[in-house]
């Protein structure tokens, strides 16, 4: 749990506006289980640390390139972590009313194999 907290704190330090993202997502706890919410926040924090920007400031091409890199990197997290990344970003974009961007994220059941291949 400490490692998870340090990822979020690092993202807050690098991109101070990320604290608002965490607060916004945390206020949605009634819609998701706490564990799911923590996983979403952790994955989005890693995303923010990678780009040094908030998710809404990142282009679809950059997002797709990042997701492809995750699937091809042998040190990359598990499939479950990848799913939390995609679902977390999708949830976040929808929360912001950015449904078009949320829909553009890969549908894991159909497209994960395409991304990997």
UniProtKB/TrEMBL annotation:
Transmembrane segments: none annotated. Residues 34-95 form the Integrase SAM-like N-terminal domain. The keyword DNA-binding applies. It comes from the Bacteria. Keywords: DNA-binding. GO terms for biological process: DNA integration. One of its GO terms (molecular function) is DNA binding. Pfam families: Phage_int_SAM_4. The keyword Lipid biosynthesis does not apply. Gene3D superfamilies: 1.10.150.130. This is Integrase SAM-like N-terminal domain-containing protein. It comes from Ancylomarina longa.
């Amino acid at each position: 749990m400490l490692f998870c907290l340090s990822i979020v704190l690092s993202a807050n330090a690098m991109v101070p506006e990320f604290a608002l993202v965490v607060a916004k997502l945390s206020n949605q706890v009634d819609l998701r289980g706490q564990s799911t919410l923590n996983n979403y926040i952790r994955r989005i924090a890693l995303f923010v640390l990678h780009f040094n920007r908030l998710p809404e400031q990142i282009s679809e091409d950059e997002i797709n390139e990042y997701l492809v890199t995750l699937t091809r990197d042998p040190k990359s997290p598990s499939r479950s972590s990848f799913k939390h990344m995609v679902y977390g970003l999708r949830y976040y974009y929808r929360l912001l009313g950015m449904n078009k961007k949320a829909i553009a994220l890969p549908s894991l059941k159909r497209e994960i194999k395409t991304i990997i291949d």
